[in-house]
Amino acid sequence: MSGMDWIVPVILTVITAATPLVFAGIGELITEKSGVLNLGVEGMMVVGAVTAFVTATVTGSYILAVLAAALSGAFMAFLFGILTLSLMANQVATGLALTLFGVGLSALIGQDFVGVPVDAIAKLNIPGLSDLPVVGPIIFGQDPLVYLSLVIVALVSWFLYKTKAGLILRAVGDSHDAAHSIGYSVIGIRYLAVMFGGAMSGIGGAYLSLAYTPMWAENMTAGRGWIALALIVFATWKPGLVLIGAYMFGGITILQLHAQAAGLDLPSQILSMLPYVATVVVLVLISKDESRIRKHAPACIGKIFHPAA
Amino acid sequence: MVYLTPLLALLLTVLTSTIVFSLLGVNPLEALENFFIKPIDNQYGATELLVKATPLILCAIGLSVGFRANVWNIGAEGQLTMGAIIGGGVFIYLHDVESVLLLPAMILMGAAGGALWAAIPAFLKTRFNANEILTSLMLVYVAILVLSLLVHGPWRDPDGFNFPESRTFSESATMPILMEGTRLHFGTIIALLAVFGTWIMLSKTLVGFQVKVIGAAPKAGSYAGFSQKKIIWFCLLFGGAMAGLAGVSEVSGPVGQLLPSISPGYGFTAIIVAFLGRLHPVGIIFAGLLMALTYLGGETAQINLGLPVAVTGVFQGMVLFYLLACDVLVNYRFKMVRFGKAAS
Predict the structure, then answer these.
(1) What is the value of ipTM here, to two decimals?
(2) What is the pTM of this model?
(3) Has domain A2-296 been given CATH number 1.10.3470?
């Protein structure tokens, strides 16, 4: 057993690095399934991160903090919805605008909170179970958001493939004209999907500022929102694969921490590049097969819906 | 309408910012004066505006060509960084050379460095169908880490007390100053030439025509035999070269050496500049000046009123938001319809 001591801490850090990606990825998955491409994930995450952090320091309540992060993300997504769904603006440009705006806004909100310490969200501690070797800390010793992320992936999977509402959502994403002609409110459904995506991105951001690194720093999402977007292509729009992908990326992200501890003599910058380079490599491997992407991507993704009057 | 909406967007942004300023406990009129008038009410301020607008205009002019053809290169910040690295690298290796050719060589290599960095998403897009939005953005982080690696390691100034910065660029590696006592430098001329050249390219050459056709009607483009892949390559290489020029003109201009951080996000703000300028070369000049003013205004407002610098970012994001919202007026015509009488 003693030679394997490093495994448990490695798994624990992989989980913390992966959880924000799980939230952001699963939220954007629902958005994209409804036929909307929101490139503002990074902006919604960073606003969620600052909102959660400020709420937690001011009120001391982590539940309120996570709720506030979800609301702020959903509100950002609502702005995106007004522009792309109601005013029919280009989704790519609007998503970029959302990210640029979110980065600026979060810096403004968080300026007085840089360097303020908070405690990380408490981990679950079930006497007896959490003390078990190996499985104790991994299965019974996570913080509540980790469990929440897993529950949400399961719920989204069930919702998409086992409920009528999920079928309608997919119909809207695959053929908005058909969905419209049989009486579904394409715009209304898309608003809900986009706002769910925003709320999840917000919680993903909250996880960064309350659990992964309990602090606030400008731009602390460091491209994770974009990695989450790549994750969805990697997962070919399937919830289960989003989860697996997020844990893979989490593993790559923490490689740098443990490579140095293991005495690997590489400059820290090279190791920090890994998640970004890995994202590019994965995108290439998946996108190579054009027909596979076409088969799985929602057919109406990025297209403006303008019902014939 | 196409050219009115940017003004409308600006007006809405100013109105919204007055609310934001009031919320921050600052007299809105005073804030606006500090943001838009004070920074440029003197000669030095006016030249600083051009200094800040130069990299914005260079990056935006490059991006605008891609955006016209629906090639979404959003990695200008990385291409700018790579231009600074390769262009600045020429000096690092030839630092004891005093030659009039040193600066031109740096400028050329800077453009090449930016183009090289943009060639990666171009290759991955045309060969493997990988989304250029995501790949170009991921490469921003990689480029910034490469710069950090170099200035912390091999390129660190040997006499620099271990600070992570390169040696300061020598006289012959520095952009000539255009006006005594200011920081206005030759890079601004390069930017204006680039704008003019792009205008000619878009309006008078076949490749410019192909860019516009493929952007407006891809199917018509392929029917006419225009190669989509060729245009993707062209747009990315061109955008990368322009951003690379911006990078090298920054480090051999106002920055004067290689530092871990050489740009306050010019490559990202340039996306806003490109849209606000309606992807048109002349519009981009005006939009570039305006966005440059928000950088200066943010600094002035911070000094005089204690406003956070982050206001600049919010302001920039808001302009683009409002612009995209106002574009509904360009793309669609509103019609009052009475209930029951619709659908004619």
Answers:
(1) 0.90
(2) 0.90
(3) yes
